[in-house]
Design a protein that fits this description.
The chain has helices spanning about 15-25, 35-65, 70-95, 100-120, 125-140. The longest helix has about 30 residues, at about 35-65. It has three domains: about 15-65, no CATH class; about 70-95; about 100-144. The chain has about 140 residues and is mainly alpha-helical.
Length: about 140
């Protein structure tokens, strides 16, 4: 298989290709033409308007955020809680699929509930102690 080698004269020079076409007998009407200047100016105006719009987008977003700050924060918190709950339920579902882990955690939960009831809820004195602990924790967090 032979490879063809091209000389530089085989390539068309864009500056002289129109002249070469005229010398070869082609009519100028059949040559490709550039778009009219009006279309170019319209395209340039549209491009300028688009670039101005994108230059002002940060200012628009800043004003929007300042105007609707509280509702946006509230929506963000609600969205975060929904995502957190979905992740929590997915993790719990994955843990429940592990054999023997689900019954073990259930036994631990029931055991702790029984201990809590026996420790704090059966006698009046221990209920008062629990109430005092809750009050002290509230005071630590909320102040006086």
């Amino acid at each position: 298989m032979e490879t063809q080698q091209f000389s530089p004269s085989d390539y068309a020079d864009p500056a002289t290709s129109a002249e070469a076409a005229l010398t070869q007998g082609l009519k100028p009407e059949t040559l490709p033409m550039l778009p009219p200047v009006d279309n170019y100016m319209q395209a340039q105006e549209i491009g300028n308007k688009i670039s101005e719009f994108f230059a002002e987008v940060p200012e628009y977003l800043g004003r929007f955020f300042n105007t609707y700050r509280q509702p946006l924060i509230t929506l963000g918190i609600i969205f975060g809680v929904v995502v957190l709950l979905k992740v929590l339920f997915a993790v719990m579902d994955a843990l429940n699929d592990i054999p023997l882990l689900y019954p073990t955690l259930e036994i631990v939960g029931i055991s702790y509930s029984i201990w809590f009831v026996n420790r704090y809820l059966l006698k009046v004195s221990t209920r008062q102690e629990l109430g005092e602990e809750i009050s002290s924790i509230k005071q630590q967090f909320l102040g006086e």
